[in-house]
Design goal:
Blueprint (H helix, E strand, L loop, with lengths): L5 H14 L6 H4 E8 L8 E2 H15 L4 E10 L2 E11 L13 E13 L2 E9 L1 H7 L14
Parallel strand pairs: 1-6
Antiparallel strand pairs: 1-2, 3-4, 4-5, 5-6
Length: 148
């Protein structure tokens, strides 16, 4: 098994699996039965590499240029958490909204727990409200205290 640190494993997940589109690496980087909490857009957990790949293919169909820029990673024992910026342009279907060609930029965080060189459990939290607002799929309410 890999001797990579949890920080290196988290960075590799986003750089190689997502940004380099090497979805087949999910078999190597995820433990069998790994649970990815809040991974789907519906907020449900994905279990295992094949469920992850199906989710990733749908997301990449909608946003072919999807990119994760990991800005910071902190680690504690067998866990690592990363703060990132996500960018792309909605040109396909797969998010439940019509493709607008609109670019977006959101922030998010991901955390993984690792054992024997593989992720056994992961959590995601991305600004989906901001995403759908930027994609013109919803309108934010006017707040009395918000700056114009």
């Amino acid at each position: 098994m890999s001797k990579a640190t949890p920080e290196a494993q988290l960075r590799r997940w986003f750089e190689e699996v997502w940004n380099a589109r090497r979805l087949e690496l999910a078999d190597e980087l995820l433990a069998p039965g790994a649970i990815l909490h809040e991974a789907s857009l519906a907020g449900e957990a994905l279990v295992g590499a094949e469920a992850f790949r199906a989710h990733a293919r749908a997301l990449l169909e909608a946003i072919p240029d999807l990119h994760f820029e990991v800005e910071q990673v902190v680690a504690d024992g067998a866990a690592a958490a990363g703060r990132m910026v996500v960018t792309g342009r909605l040109t396909g279907r797969g998010l439940g909204v019509e493709p607008t060609g609109q670019e977006f930029r959101i922030t998010g965080m991901a955390m993984g727990r690792y054992r024997d060189g593989r992720c056994v459990e992961g959590w995601n939290s991305f600004d989906l409200l901001g995403l759908f607002h930027q994609l013109e799929a919803l309108k934010r309410p006017k707040l009395p205290f918000a700056d114009e």
